[in-house]
Automatic annotation (TrEMBL):
This is Phosphonate monoester hydrolase. GO terms for cellular component: cytoplasm. GO terms for molecular function: metal ion binding; sulfuric ester hydrolase activity. Residues 8-385 form the Sulfatase N-terminal domain. It comes from Mesorhizobium mediterraneum. InterPro entries: Alkaline_phosphatase_core_sf (IPR017850), Sulfatase_N (IPR000917). It holds the Pfam family Sulfatase. SUPFAM superfamilies: Alkaline phosphatase-like.
């Protein structure tokens, strides 16, 4: 049953690669995010929220579809999203919204619906079906570069060189990481550009017509660079100790997958023009990168403040549900790594704040129960008064927003990571296994984390009460055998329960279809 009154506006914001600990709202010792904190004060902060997969396309597929990777099957950037799956934009459109995109969704289209020569088959940066595009900002960032040029900024370096320090463009690249700023200012970042486009669009909306907007910011995703004053806002010497072994060699010796991953990470992916491997950067470089990452978070936070002001100025603040989250997180130098992937919490623990202006009883509350990216779509449908399709893997978070707690809530977080490389087969050759075996699945409770690998790679078990930094694998310790077996069984039960339910919840009877058929309206199911 739909909730009484005017249907709410929806503002879904994702900030790419934002680590869940990096908010002052969760008492980070260094990072300050006053505008995120202001949203948390009016909403509910989920402290134990986890992405469902990595990198961007798989993570977003979980968020947009409400399905785990085992069901949406988006394994890598470039894996097509099966056209049979519903998603958050299509569901909103069926309710009368015109979901509007600012940024990107990184969804590869289903090639079965396109001609072989269609140019959309040459990029993984497609648009999620159901969205109207107001301002697309793919990886090449050409719309932003054109905007910079119109403002008199020389953008001739293009992407990614535009994100090098201004002093390095066209000249020598410093071997050490520097805090030098780029050619663009704090008012000319990609986040500032997208925010301006959203504010302009918001001013065009009829006050009596509900709207749905998705702002998808790239920051704080690398390249790691940020304009003044954010480049010097945080001292590299500040911050907690890195979570890692005594050397990258020790990390590599601890598991075959870590040895492979550490060998793969190239510096140029994170600092354009840099040579060598990430693992060989020293502590000073990792600390400076981390300080720049914190600065990028503060720069995004400033743009979020502009958005809050614009929504209030439009008279829409009390009619707008806001969801602020990320797709996946960032390693920030832990385990001698940058970026995302693998199994560490550092890659998958992400922020989530939900503010529903109709629900003030829980304002300012924080939730310590495990939530997952697949919960976002069911939650928004529930908040709009619609039934959640029962084949979805996520659960509505609405009871937490009503200052309660749902029955039988999950006691663990789960995520998956697929490291196949279909186009070049690198991982397959390295491990001597097939693409179907290049995967891992994680179950993480408050006390333990169990990681199961395909292809015969050894499992991992971490005692998080004794080993918060995930350094000691106790999977082979006889004392932990009961824990390992229990978590392996729970992981198997989780997979069995959540295998694709699109048609499994339906049955043909003499009276016709009983149950639920995914993709059909409820009255036909």
């Amino acid at each position: 049953m739909a909730e009484k009154g005017r249907r709410q506006n929806i503002l879904l914001i994702t900030c790419d690669q934002w680590h869940g600990d990096c908010l002052s709202a969760v008492s980070h010792p260094v990072v300050r995010t006053p505008n995120v904190d202001a949203l948390a004060a009016e909403g509910v902060l989920f402290r134990e929220h986890y992405g469902g997969a990595a990198p961007c396309s798989p993570a977003r597929a979980c968020l947009y579809t409400g399905l785990y990777q085992m069901n949406n099957r988006v394994c890598r950037n470039g894996t097509p999203l099966d056209a049979r799956h519903g998603n958050i934009a299509l569901w909103a459109r069926s309710l009368g919204y015109d979901p509007t995109l600012f940024g990107y969704t990184d969804v590869s289209p289903d090639p079965r619906a396109l001609a072989p020569g269609d140019p959309r088959l040459k990029s993984y940066e497609g648009v999620l079906p159901g969205f109207t595009v107001r301002q697309l900002l793919p990886e090449h960032q050409k719309p932003w570069l054109s905007w910079l040029k119109a403002r008199g900024i020389d953008s001739g370096a293009g992407f990614p060189d535009i994100h090098r320090p201004a002093s390095e463009i066209g000249g020598r690249i410093e071997s050490a990481v520097t805090s030098a700023p780029p050619v663009y200012s704090k008012d000319e970042t990609p986040a500032a550009f997208l925010t301006g486009e959203f504010v302009r669009w918001l001013g065009e909306q009829e006050r009596d017509t509900p709207w749905f907007a998705h702002l998808s910011f790239l920051s704080p995703h690398p390249p790691f660079i940020v304009p003044e004053p954010y480049n010097m806002m945080y001292d590299p010497a500040d911050g907690t100790a890195f979570r890692r072994a005594a050397s990258w060699q020790a990390e590599a010796e601890s598991h075959p997958y870590l040895a492979y991953d550490l060998d793969q990470q190239q510096r140029a992916k994170f600092r354009p023009g840099a040579e060598g491997k990430v693992r060989d950067w020293g502590d000073d470089d990792f600390r400076r990168i981390r300080s720049l990452y914190y600065g990028m978070i503060s720069e995004v936070d400033a743009q979020l403040g502009r958005i809050w002001q614009a929504v209030k100025a439009a008279g829409a603040w009390d009619d707008t549900i806001i969801v602020l989250t990320s797709d996946h997180a960032e390693m920030m130098g832990d385990h001698y790594m940058l970026g995302k992937g693998g199994f560490f919490d550092g890659s998958f623990h992400i922020p989530l704040i939900i503010r529903d202006p109709r629900r003030r009883n829980a304002a300012g509350a924080s939730v310590d129960r495990f939530s997952e990216a697949v919960d976002i779509a069911p939650t928004l449908l529930d908040l709009l008064g619609e039934e959640t399709p029962p084949h979805l893997d996520g659960q509505s978070l609405k009871p937490f927003l009503d200052a309660g707690e749902p029955d039988n809530w999950r006691e663990a977080a789960h995520w998956e990571f697929d490291f196949r490389s279909v186009a070049d087969g690198d991982a397959e050759r390295h491990f001597g296994i097939g693409p179907r075996q290049c995967n891992l699945a994680v179950i993480r409770t408050e006390k333990f984390k169990y990681v199961h690998f395909g292809g015969g790679l050894p499992p991992l078990l971490f005692d998080l009460e004794k080993d918060r930094d995930e350094l000691t694998n106790v999977a082979g310790d006889p004392a932990y055998l009961p824990v390992r077996l229990e978590l392996a069984e729970r992981l198997l039960a989780w997979r069995a329960e959540h295998l694709d339910q699109s048609l499994a919840l339906a049955e043909l009877t003499e009276d016709g279809v009983a149950g639920h058929v995914a993709g059909l309206p409820p009255f036909q199911s």
